[in-house]
Amino acid sequence: MAARDNHGTGPPWSKGFQVVGKPHPKLDGLAKATGQAIYADDIQLPGMLHVKFLRSPHAHARIVSIDVQKALEHDGVHAVLTGADLPTKYGVIPWTPDENALAVERVRFIGDEICAVAAIDEDTANTALKLIEVEYEELHAYLDPFDALERSDPQIHDEIRGKEVRGNISKKVELEFGDVDGGFDAADVVVEGDYFFHGTTHTPIEPHCAVAQYGADGVLTVWSATQITHYVQRALARVLEMPEARIRVVQPCLGGAFGGKSDPFALEFVVAKLAMITGRPCKCLWTREEVFYAHRGRHPMHMHYRTGASRDGRLTAVDAKILIDGGSYSSFGLVTTYYSGQLLTGPYDFPSYRFDSTRVFTNKPPCGPKRGHGSVQPRFAFEVQLDQVAEKLALDPIELRRRNFQGENTKTVNGQRVTSNGFMQCLDEVERASDWIARRGRLPRGRGLGVAGSMYISGTNYAVYPNDMPQAGVQLKLDRSGLVTVFTGGNDIGQGSNSVARIIVAEELGLDPEDVRVVAADTDLCPVDLGAYSSRVTFMVGNALIDACRKVRKTIVDAVAAEWEIPAQRVWMGLGEVFDLEDRERRLSTRKAFHLAEERFDTLGATGSYNTPKLGGDYRGGTIGASPAYSFTAHAVEVAVDEETGRITVENCWVAHDCGRALNPMLVAGQMEGSAYMGIAEALMEHHDVNRFGLHQGPSLLDYRIPTSIDTPELHALIVESLDPEGPYGAKEAGEGPLHPSVPAISNAVFDACGVRLCELPFTPGKVLKALRAQRDSGKAALADLAPNP
Amino acid sequence: MRVLRLNVNGDTHEVAAPEHWTLLEVLRYEMGLTGSKQGCDKGDCGACTVLVDGAPVLSCLSLAALAEGPEITTIEGLLPAHIAAGDEGPDPVQEAFHRCGALQCGFCQPGMMLSARALLNDNASPTREQIKNALAGNLCRCTGYTQIIQAVELAVAEAAGVAPENPAWSPDENPWATCRRGESEAGHS
Predict the structure, then answer these.
(1) Residue B96 within a domain
(2) Are B44 and A701 in contact (CB < 8 Å)?
């Protein structure tokens, strides 16, 4: 399959890159800058109805009865839906469909959707919601994952896909590689401790929104703020019991996602069903409060880690036991549970590893994939523990990490193939930029430097549903005007994947980038791509584009070679022109070359695709976490700790990230800075949680406290290029990996600043003061807050 | 319903809207000026920021009925105003945001750019601290603010004819010099 061709790390021609590697503004930048870009809520259709949801006021309850009659009779109301109208369950992972668009018999968290009203405007719909009468029978609400682990009556889910659920356990994974007990026996030092990572959420500035129109021809169109157009189409087909071919899903310009728009959501099914029932277009825009209930954010994890090392700092064994608080539904939880263990096995080499991860259901907003899915939490625990190992051995923390570097072209202890690996350069870069050697351990008390490393996947060979078709497909249309249009199912969620597509096609076909335009994420127009998740788009869509370009370029080159009666090797395309390499006077515009090719052959176009090679360990779950390429990151952060108030201020964050090759360094830097910002925010400010009644503790941007420009430190993006053998021109991901080290690097910097270990997130002033007090009381460096949350 | 006379982007419009509607709702859903965004509808995020007589105002917290009289500028008004003033293309703030990569998802940026425009109208050479303070009411979730601040500093530097500070990621001086609108790649290979 052409899709598995290795395209190599060089440009398509023997000359250097013409377009790749230079900063280019985004292809939709000016549309966004001038307000012309159309987002989902900007769509207004004639006769459109507005939809609002009734949500559960109880964390866990049986629905005894629902009476919608008064709401239906209210002036201006066109339809009311309940769970009985959409009985088919769905879930983004095909093995765990446990969600209904509207609750059937049971509500599982405060905010769970029960009814939906379509009315002439939002005010009318909101008024009608108040007329709906629901009778509940309250059930025991699980708000603590330990309670959910121990108690099984009542169960939050009785069965999923015909399979009985064991108590409230959503997923359990136990895997062991190498001789773990022997590794600990051989260790000279063992560090053991408990770590807690709290819940955080994505908060894209654009709330979820969907608009549906049901054509008289029986074609349903849904415009949705989603990062997974293809999966939404499949889920709609399942729930609405319609053929996929009758459903068109379009992602308009998207106002941020970060993983928070990678499940199918209730509003998509509901606006579709209501459009079909009423014969009118329907729109639903969730309020900010509703976005907090939709959640799918970072799973809280209670983690126990044990790490053994030899006297010279070589790791001998790692053992982890993790309890994952999943919230009320499965979402991506099966994958999260695997990722919590599977993605820890780099950039360091260790000969033995065991993890035991259990995800439980609780009666809280459902958790899911947030930037760095499943691996940010264990990475925090492990990188703090590595610092503790370095402390015990009196080794410099960077030196300890260097001594355990796994190297390039190797296999991890859990059987994952690692090819390119620029982690050592990442360490070098942050060491240099932070002036580490001169300053770490030498700053006055209250100021400190910390380091942490990480790795992450560039896509995974685990498609969300099993199939042998390409993971990324693209199509090119070459126009007589000289324009090339790219059709890709890939979702540009703001990360700039459409701009990356433009750069690759301009490079391959020797075009001015402005002569490449991109049509994306429209299931009617674009070949299937699985969507923007797992940091897969640049890697997979990029390779598919190269595949397509090389097919069509051959046609053009052959046509020009025939016209000039020279061998094809002498024809060179670049910068909007086609040359004879041996007679530079002989040249024509790319547009003219397109004409020649069309005259000689056919209408110009090509498809291209990409699929991963066969990857992964030979055991159950061994393909989860297997990626065609891994990215690597190191952070150094500089903190100031105010010992009177307990407040931590991050002043600088140096982010060195191995992205393989920076196709557009400005966009790569933007991803690195945005990732680091989000990690720092999770460490210091943000906390997504419910109170003792299960009610969200503050579902607003003010209460949730995402950082402003004043709260954000100076971020220094240091790009490292390892040139991956299989990435497009050597590129790997840049959008998720650079978040991981932020959190442990801050904890490690606080230790450098004042000798206390912060092992429980978020690092609030109260926790800092408590740790400092313990340190004073014991008269020596103390471990802060080892006990998990009560 | 009430008929309102609003001065928006240099024109006077008569629009009918429910009395309790905010300026944001009237701009977006009555006038079709969807560049102003709704991120929270309670004054937390700043995505709905418009200029009222040149000052940044949260249109989601402003009753439309109280917005009659002053000059309202939305993001859609910047480019036409720039052209009407005899210049070409978008406002230098919009252009700088574009060239610096500050527009990731772009959702917060209409409000962000209007806050930046208001700042530069008052102070042609703000310090980085002043820029951060002026933009602190506009939340961005994509960028970590770094490329936004670089964009404002680039607009300031170019207006003053001085070189901007180099970003950490670029080995070249002023990497944004080649990112001008309409500048062909062929011109700088």
Answers:
(1) yes
(2) yes
Q: What is the DSSP string of A80-91?
A: EEEGGGS---B-
Summary count for chain A: helices (H), strands (E): 20, 32
CATH number at residue B63: 3.10.20.30
Beta bridge partners of A118: A51, A79
Q: Quick check: is B169 in a domain?
A: yes
DSSP string, A32-69: HHTT-PPBGGG---TT-EEEEEEE-SSSSEEEEEEE-H
Distances (CA, A) of A406 to A134, A309, A349: 58, 15, 4
Give backbone dihedrals phi and psi of B175, rounded to 5 degrees, phi first. -65, -15
Q: What is the pLDDT of residue A534?
A: 95
When divided into structural domains, chain B yields a total of: 2
Binding-face residues of B in 81-100 toward A, CB within 8 A: 90, 94-95, 97-100
Tell me, yes or no, whether B28 and B107 share the same domain: no
**Residue B186 located in a structural domain:** no
The C-alpha angle with vertex A247 and arms to A244 and A249, in degrees rounded to 5, equals 115
- Asked if the model's pLDDT at residue A13 lies above 70, the reply is yes
Same-domain check for residues A310 and A439 = yes
Q: Which residues of B touch A706 (CB under 8 A)?
A: 139, 141
Residue B51 shares a structural domain with residue B101:
no
Same domain, B69 and B98: no
Residues of chain B positioned with their CB less than 8 A from the CB of A674: 104, 141-144
Tokens of A427: 């360490």
Could you tell me which residues are beta bridge partners of residue A608? A474
Q: At what angle do helices A742-754 and A665-684 cross, to 10 degrees?
A: 60
Taking only the tens place, the pLDDT of each residue in A45-104 is: 999 999 999 999 999 999 999 999 999 999 999 999 999 999 999 999 999 999 999 999
pLDDT at B188: 34
C-alpha–C-alpha distance, residues A708 and A29, integer Å: 22
- Residue B132's CATH number: 1.10.150.120
Q: Is the pTM of this model over 0.95?
A: yes
Residue B87, helix vs strand vs coil: coil
User: What was the pLDDT predicted at A786?
Assistant: 52
Put simply, whether B136 touches A (Cβ < 8 Å) is yes
Which residues 185-224 on chain A approach chain B with CB closer than 8 angstroms?
202-207
| C-alpha distance from A23 to closest chain B C-alpha (Å) | 7
- Give residue A31's identity as a one-letter amino acid code: A
Note whether A700 contacts B40, CB cutoff 8 Å. Answer: yes
In chain A, which among 418-437 make CB contacts under 8 A with chain B? 433
Tell me the count of A-B CB pairs closer than 8 A: 229
Other Cβ atoms within 10 Å of B137 Cβ, number = 18
Same domain membership, residue B62 and residue B94: no
Same domain, A484 and A533: yes
Can you say how many angstroms the Cα of residue A118 is from the centroid of all Cα atoms in its chain?
A: 32
> For testing the chain A interface, which of B169, B172, B173, B189 should be mutated: the one with the most A CBs within 10 Å?
B169
Q: Is B65 on the interface with A (CB under 8 A)?
A: no
Which range of residues forms the domain containing residue A486?
2-37+470-610
The domain of B37 spans 2-74
Tell me, yes or no, whether A29 lies in a domain.
yes
Block mean pLDDT (10 aa), chain B, length 189: 96 96 98 98 97 98 97 98 96 98 98 98 98 98 98 97 94 81 42
- The verdict on A270 and A321 lying in the same domain is no
In a domain, A185, yes or no: no
**Total number of domains in chain A:** 3
User: Does A156 fall in a domain?
Assistant: no
* Rounded Cα distance, A284 and A270, in Å: 9
| Interface contact flag, B75 A34, Cβ < 8 Å | yes
Q: Using the 8-state DSSP alphabet, how is residue A246 labeled?
A: G
**Listed residues B24, B43, B74: the one ending a domain:** B74
Query: Which of A206, A672, A716 has the CB atom closest to B107's CB atom?
Result: A206
Domain presence at residue A241: yes
